[in-house]
Amino acid sequence: MGAYYDEIEIEDMAWDDEKRVYHYPCPCGDRFEISRKQLKNYEDIATCPSCSLIIRVVYDPLDFEDDPDSEEEDPGSEETEATDDSDSEAFEDAMEKLQISA
Ligand SMILES: [Zn+2]
Q1: What is the tens place of the pLDDT at every residue in 4-16?
Q2: Is 96 part of a structural domain of the chain?
């Protein structure tokens, strides 16, 4: 391709914890952005929402391979019920042990 405005190392980009993106200043005054999810999917192009410039992000995909990637895709409602069950079981176990040791 070779149409990048620049190549930037991931270490030189800043992390936005609220938007969960890496960003780097764009000459137009806005900023290039790329999400962890994109990096995990081996995408290395950060785009600026305000102009047509793009940069290539230099990074090691292995660093992002094991990312939990939880917030966006997992609503977590089913897990809550399972946790409740195991909690009450653990409570009963604790009561049994309490009576045995008493
Ligand atoms: Zn721009």
Answers
A1: 999 999 999 999 9
A2: no
Q: Which pLDDT score is estimated for 85?
A: 58
Q: How far apart are CA 32 and CA 43, in angstroms?
A: 14
User: 99 to each of 86, 88, 90, 94, how far by Cα in Å?
Assistant: 20, 17, 14, 9
Count how many Cα atoms sit within 13 Å of the Cα of residue 96 in the half-sphere of its side chain.
6
Which CATH number do you get for residue 42?
3.10.660.10
Cα 75 to ligand 1 centroid, rounded to whole Å: 34
Q: Measure 11 CA to ligand 1 centroid, in angstroms.
A: 20
User: Which residues on neighbouring strands pair with residue 55, listed in sequence order?
Assistant: 6, 46
Instruction: Give the Cα separation of 9 and 2 in Å (integer).
Output: 16
